[in-house]
Amino acid sequence: NSLTQVVHSAGRRFIVSPVPESRLREQ
Amino acid sequence: AEDTGVRVELAEEDDGRKSSIALRLWVEDPKKLKGKPKDNGAIEFTFDLEKETPDDVAQEMVDAGFFHENDVKIVAKSIRDRVALIQWRRERIWPMLQ
To answer: Which pLDDT score is estimated for B98?
Structure first.
């Protein structure tokens, strides 16, 4: 999925994807 | 748990048995952080409840460039609070369901 990015650090895999709008607290 | 501005949730159903569990972390309120987080994406990772500490993961997130070094304690606390809740729930609810 083009919106998902995989980052590795110290052997751990982090999967970064957009936070659903509904979960972002209104700023 | 104190509102750190960083949200950590389960990224999968907890079956109460596995030591390794998927968590999802994102910044809800960037104003509560000292540094500017890299972007407001949700970061999913697995955490071993038996072998790892929230501080390890928080430092790895800083090393990966997700957060500023000055926020490592806030990120670690956010993860620690969620892990404590998961372990609390496992100790109380799962024995009844066995």
So the answer is: 66
Chain B residue numbers touching A15 (CB-CB < 8 A): 43-45
Structure tokens at B60: 């790895």
How many CB pairs below 8 Å do chains A and B form together? 49
At residue B34, the 3 state secondary structure works out as coil
Which of A9, A19, A25 is the closest to B29 by Cβ?
A25
Q: Are B64 and B58 in contact (CB under 8 A)?
A: no
Are the CB atoms for B58 and B72 separated by under 8 Å?
yes
Cβ(B40)–Cβ(B26) under 8 Å? yes
pLDDT, tens only, B62-72 = 999 999 999 99
| pLDDT tens column, A1-27 | 567 889 888 889 999 998 877 766 654
For B43, phi then psi, to 5°, come to -105, 115
